[in-house]
Write a structure and sequence with these properties.
With 285 residues, this protein is of the alpha/beta class. It folds into 2 domains: 202 residues, Rossmann fold (3-Layer(aba) Sandwich); 66 residues, rRNA adenine dimethylase, C-terminal domain (Helicase, Ruva Protein, domain 3, Orthogonal Bundle). S-adenosylmethionine binds next to strand 1, helix 3 and strand 3.
Length: 285
């Protein structure tokens, strides 16, 4: 059989199992061995590592991960792919396949059971329709994770890395930069996938900070403030905060805090850095 990470090898296994792609699951399989090697190299996996792969597809990247890691846990939602994975991964005794929706899985418990609570590494060519909830869940769920190396839509990778004052800057940028140090490691063209996605992609590595780069009294409240600030992008920060019933902040209080911080009353959320959001949240509550 031809190697899986090639067009021929992928077609061969899909035909063998009469598999049809399901668009609703964001199925775009990697068919470029150079990109596969780049992802695995960027994830810096060692023989001591337990790796969580989200959406293994037909097991192409899983084979690379299984060769480098101590253990791989591969979580795939599509039941039709399970017999294929059992076939393509039959030569590896360190892979566990779980047929589950990653958004429903208790990853914290799984890490506790599989890796005795020690930090894992996450590697994935993510399904693009749920990229943000997956990343936010991994970051905010406080699961012990050392790094996350993922293929995402190029535009989403840019959003994770960017700073204040750009159109891409928002709640995702702030969450990613609060918990991790992001670094784009490769740009990937649609031709590297089967079927070809309509958008360009990028591989980004998020290395978890040992300690967040800013001091916040209440992390949850800071993220509520951030979400309220970006919920109404065309509104000023003051209106965004005062219009959020869950925060319970008056316009007067918001204006008073902005003045203390030396910011104009008309400032918008996208102008504030992570440090300023931390300060804002500490002063508000
Ligand atoms: N890793 C494979 C590769 O690189 O060729 C496939 C990547 S494909 C972009 C995304 C994979 O995620 C598909 O196999 C899809 O079925 C799976 N998937 C989609 N939604 C999922 C979910 N909620 N939980 C787990 N897997 C999911």
């Amino acid at each position: 059989m031809a190697a899986l990470g090639t067009p021929g090898g992928t077609v061969e296994i899909l035909k063998k199992y009469n598999f049809s792609f399901r668009k609703k699951y964001g199925q775009n399989f990697l068919i470029d061995t150079n990109i596969l090697k780049k992802i695995v190299d960027a994830s810096c996996i060692t023989e001591q590592d337990c790796v969580l792969e989200i959406g293994p597809g037909i097991g192409t990247m899983t084979q690379y991960l299984a060769k480098s890691a101590k253990e791989v846990i591969a979580v795939e939602i599509d039941r039709a792919l399970i017999p294929i994975l059992e076939d393509t991964l039959s030569g590896y005794d360190n892979v566990t396949i779980i047929n589950e929706d990653i958004l429903k899985l208790d990853i914290g418990r799984m890490v506790e059971e599989k890796n005795e609570g020690r930090a894992i590494k996450v590697v994935a060519n993510l399904p693009y329709y749920i990229t943000t909830p997956i990343i936010m869940g991994l970051l905010e769920g406080h699961v012990p994770i050392e790094s996350i190396t993922i293929m995402v839509q190029k535009e989403v990778a840019d959003r994770m890395q960017t700073g204040p004052g750009t159109k891409d800057y928002g709640a995702l940028s702030l969450a990613v930069q609060y918990y991790t140090k992001p670094e784009i490691v490769a740009q990937v063209t649609p031709a590297c996938f089967m079927p070809k996605p309509k958008v360009g992609s990028a591989v980004i590595r998020l290395a978890r900070h040992e300690k967040p780069p800013v001091d916040v009294d209440d992390e949850k409240l800071m993220f509520s403030v951030i979400r309220a600030s970006f919920n109404q992008r065309r509104k000023t920060l003051v209106n965004g905060l005062a219009n959020d019933p869950k925060l319970g902040i008056s316009k007067e209080k918001a204006l008073e805090v902005l003045e203390t911080m030396g910011l104009p009353s008309t400032v918008r959320g996208e102008a504030l850095s992570l440090k300023e959001f931390a300060q804002l949240s500490n002063l508000l509550f």
